[in-house]
Amino acid sequence: MEANREKIVVYGLGEFWHQHREELEKEYDIVQYCDKTAKIEGLSICRSIDDINKNLKIFIMISQIHILFEVINELTMAGVMPPNINFGISRWGYSKLERIYVDDTYRMHIVCKNIDLIINSEDEFYNAIDTILLECYKYHINSDKSEVVFDVGMNIADSTIFFSKMPKVKMVYGFEPFEKTYNSAIKNIELNNIRNNVKVFNFGLSGSELTKHLNYGDNMSCGQSTIDSINEGNICQYEKWGLVKREELTSENVVLKRSAIVLAELIDKNPDCNYILKLDCEGEEYSIFEDLSESGIISRFSLILLEWHYKGGERLIELLKENGFSFVSCEKELSPALGLIYAWK
Question: Could you tell me if 196 and 79 lie in one domain?
Fold first, then answer.
């Protein structure tokens, strides 16, 4: 029986490995350990990733997601083939995911409930977990009507794809102003073969039309804002977390269009439906709400799924009440202030 155990390499000998060492050693024949600094009595440890056994499966026993991306890059440079890159978090920590894998171009994927997403950063990983594993946007409207969803703040299309698979959804319209993030969304939509009920736009929504020039960080797509002060504040926070370096930021021109005009035109193209508005747009939700309320368009929505940022939920709740909505509201974090509002008629 012992001879039949699969031979593997273990990369990473920190706390996560210690927690699951016994299970690993029971199931696999570990022929090599690799860690840059760890000292474990009785173990011979490979220090250089260039000396790792590239012909065996390599289990990365690291739970910090941002470090996983660094290790993938190191293994890529060392010539390790994608099928040999495996993640301990697939077994322990995120076992409810169907799969975490690296594709032929060394991009990380997570697969859950028949949704396969390319993940480029820790930011995107946790956002996708909320959407496709924890189903934070799952809803039900007790009606036979078809549904049209407006995904404002589409990001990498995790929520857009999630909505598109709901049984009564006729169409999902996704809005993402940052070009690099938009391109990631397109790749995920194509990967999941979503053709008939998704249309996406490379612009954002606001209370008016304008074009802005903003800094962009590859590892903070979920924190990018079209509000200048918020975007700069988020960059500073991501710098503190060690996820972005200011000298590596790029710049983007982003286009914003007036929400009331764009959404009214799309609603009119899809008559006699239930309309769902999802907003996660890093501070732009306030101007959008003011515009939708002033124009009366807000009253056409059956359900609003909203994450608010930094300014509190009071004004948004006030506008919801004025327009006849019931709602549930809660704070998500205390610093920086984030909160959720789910509102319905």
Answer: no
